[in-house]
Amino acid sequence: MFNADRFIKESVTTLKQEIAGKTLIAFSGGVDSTVCAALVNKAIGDQLIAVHIDTGYMRKGESASVEKLMRNLGLNYQFIDASKEFYAALKGVEDPEKKRKIIGEKFIRLFEQVAKKENIDYLVQGTIAPDWIESGGELRDTIKSHHNVGGLPERMDVKLVEPLRDLYKDEVRKIARVLGLPVAERQPFPGPGLSIRVIGEATPERTALAREACHIVETEIEKAVEKGEMEKPWQYFAVLLPVKTVGVHGDKRAYGHTIAIRAVHSIDAMTCSYSTIPHQVIDKISTKITNELGTRVNRIVYDVTNKPPGTVEWE
Q: Which CATH architecture has domain 197-302?
């Protein structure tokens, strides 16, 4: 059975031996990167620089809350707004594998710029077992390239350190609880962000629709959980589909986008089952999305696919 206390002690000892110099951590503010930052901070203190990159594909208010988290954890950190660069890099790109690889490459190059300026020798990432398993390699098929694995360039100017590489999400959460981190129960958010929740080209305009829809899904589900109307899903979000359908707005014909709602239960992210959301909650989400996004969205569908055959995210 996994022992979080023992892992923390052994990991900090190993990191002290493995890292000999200034270190940069890619900090998303999720469970994995926050646990990594806490462990490495225990091992090397101010030698660690946490870097958060706003790609433009973050959830509503995400980067501001991440910056606050870095401050509260007492991390030595830097914040980079690279949204224009990422939007430009993904212009015209529809294939999800290309999106992930472009984002992975861009992340590394931006981190390398900081590394060069700060004389950094090591890059820490919150990679966990499902990331490299799904990214393929050796005898494994590629299900989807995670940006921090399959999206990594072959040549990097820094040494890669991945303290959580052999762990699963439930084990990382146990570590977060022992460390008293405020993100222990936070739902996962993919490294490529909303770019893979926009099926097709992730333009700023289409991303904005997905961002608002995701915010509504998260807010309404969390309200329902607080009221005791339903169990909290492991992950829950909205996806913007590359499909337009005919609807009615007022008494006029409307031709708008379609949003899919996705909510799942899982333990280790390797498998999942779709969540059964009460009808009244789905009704509130649907009504709010179509009211607040006006004629731009006129149809809402609910995803009832398990993993397998599907994946948690749509891309």
A: 2-Layer Sandwich (3.30)
